[in-house]
C-alpha cells in the first residue's frame, strides 16, 4: 500500500516492512526447518512439547520471531495506513491517533496470546514429552 502512495515516506515504509518480513520469515523457516526438523526428523508437533527445557535460548528466539511475525501483520493493517495517509495530508493529530491505535491493538493481540498460552492444556515443563523428544533426537543421531 505504501509503495503505491507515490511518496518518499510510503516507499521507505514499504521497503522497511518488506525487509522486516524477510528477516522474520527467514528466521522462522530456519528455526523450524533448519533446527527442529533436522534434529527430530518429524513434523509431529507433540514431539516439540517441552523444548524450552532442552533449548531455552532457541525457544526465546522462536517466540520473539513469532511475535515479530504477528506485529508485522498488525503494523501493515488499516490503522497504520490511516496514520500514514493522515501524515501525508498534514494531519498530525490523525497520524498520532492512528499510531496510538495501532500500538493499542498490538497490545491487545499480545494479551490475547498470553491468555491463550496461560490457559492452554500444555506447558513447557511437560516432562513426558521432553524425554520423548530427547529420546527421538538421540535415536536419529
What is the mean predicted local confidence, pLDDT? 76
Elements, N to C (H/E): HHHHHH
Shape descriptor reads: elongated
Radius of gyration from the alpha-carbon trace, in angstroms = 20 Å
Q: Tell me what portion of residues adopts beta-strand conformation.
A: under 5%
Helical content (DSSP H or I, runs of 4+): over 70%
Instruction: Report the end-to-end length measured between terminal Cα atoms.
Output: 47 Å
In oligomeric terms, what are we looking at? single chain
Main beta sheet strand tally, sense and closure: none
GO molecular function: cytochrome-c oxidase activity; NADH dehydrogenase (ubiquinone) activity; NADH dehydrogenase activity; ubiquinone binding
Main location: membrane
Protein name: Cytochrome c oxidase subunit 3
Family: Belongs to the cytochrome c oxidase subunit 3 family.
Description of the structure:
This protein is an all-alpha fold and 141 residues long. The chain has one domain (2-140). The chain contains six helices and no strands. Helix 4 (78-88) runs antiparallel to helix 5. The termini are far apart.
Amino acid at each position: 500500500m505504501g509503495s503505491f502512495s507515490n511518496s518518499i515516506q510510503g516507499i521507505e515504509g514499504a521497503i522497511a516492512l518488506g525487509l522486516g518480513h524477510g528477516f522474520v520469515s527467514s528466521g522462522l523457516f530456519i528455526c523450524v526447518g533448519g533446527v527442529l526438523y533436522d534434529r527430530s526428523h518429524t513434523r509431529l508437533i507433540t514431539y516439540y512439547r517441552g523444548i524450552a527445557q532442552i533449548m531455552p535460548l532457541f525457544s526465546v528466539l522462536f517466540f520473539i520471531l513469532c511475535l515479530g511475525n504477528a506485529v508485522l501483520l498488525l503494523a501493515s493493517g488499516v490503522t497504520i495506513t490511516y496514520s500514514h495517509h493522515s501524515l501525508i495530508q498534514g494531519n498530525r493529530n490523525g497520524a498520532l491517533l492512528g499510531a496510538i491505535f495501532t500500538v493499542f491493538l498490538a497490545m491487545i493481540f499480545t494479551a490475547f496470546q498470553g491468555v491463550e498460552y496461560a490457559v492452554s492444556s500444555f506447558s513447557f515443563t511437560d516432562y513426558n514429552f521432553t524425554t520423548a523428544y530427547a529420546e527421538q533426537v538421540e535415536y536419529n543421531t
